[in-house]
Amino acid sequence: MSPSPLITRTVPALRRAVDNLRKRKATVALVPTMGALHDGHVSLVRLAKRRASRVVVSIFVNPTQFSPSEDFGAYPRTWKSDIAKLAAEDVDIVWHPGVEAMYPEGFATRIVPEGPALAGLEDRFRPHFFGGVATVVGKLFTQCRPDVAIFGEKDFQQLRVVTQMTRDLDLGVKVIGSRTVRERDGLAMSSRNVYLSPTERQTATVLYRAMTDSAGRIRAGEAIASAMARGAEMVATAGFALDYFELRHAETLAPVTSRKDGPLRILVAARLGTTRLIDNIAV
């Protein structure tokens, strides 16, 4: 049976633990999470272990990236299961601060990202989101001081925002994206999938099918506008309330009009019942 990771809840305790790893010439990878861990998170941990000799996993449900109408209070929290999964993967340290440790009384500083944070995708529907993400990730990086940090590609705009912020602020962390892990039927693994009813769970696979259909049409030479319209129609016809179904440049997230515009990515966000799902694939 694998030993449980060291659990730290204050910044001084975390820094002592990381310093102890550094004294042994360790390289350190950070995997930021909000808990409710699934196989997608486990894949991030395994990639982290390939990129560094020691791994820190943070578990913090960050209130600043939720609006009052979103699911902060209901967001799944599965602490015992999370720790069991991390122990099985031989994670070294779990950073599990409370809100008061991350945002103590008098906290008054925010990071306000631009560039890919203003691409007209998630920011159009959740204008508060990337400021909350950038601030908490900036804090995590300065608290943990990792060599590398691993983020899933499922939250693709977030990955681009964090990469840009890290470069712009000279934070000295190599940000690495990890491919999206999917269920057998193509649905991207997500902590929010538990909100789906059995019927909604079956319908949710349409997101992946619509993206792959549009990507295939674009690769075959069909006009971008018609290929993307077909995918959006598939999503809407299945009963989703579609927020966006967009083809963007994979690095800048700028809109594209031609297959020659650079590496391409299809990104989608849609609501099914009370659950909002996001996904993306390379073209």
Automatic annotation (TrEMBL):
Pfam families: Pantoate_ligase (PF02569). (R)-pantoate binds at Q65, Q158. ATP binds at residues 34-41, 152-155, 181, 189-192. Pathway: Cofactor biosynthesis; (R)-pantothenate biosynthesis; (R)-pantothenate from (R)-pantoate and beta-alanine: step 1/1. Keywords: ATP-binding, Cytoplasm, Ligase, Nucleotide-binding, Pantothenate biosynthesis. Beta-alanine binds at Q65. Signal peptide: none annotated. It comes from Bradyrhizobium zhengyangense. Its EC number is 6.3.2.1. The gene is panC. This is Pantothenate synthetase. Belongs to the pantothenate synthetase family.
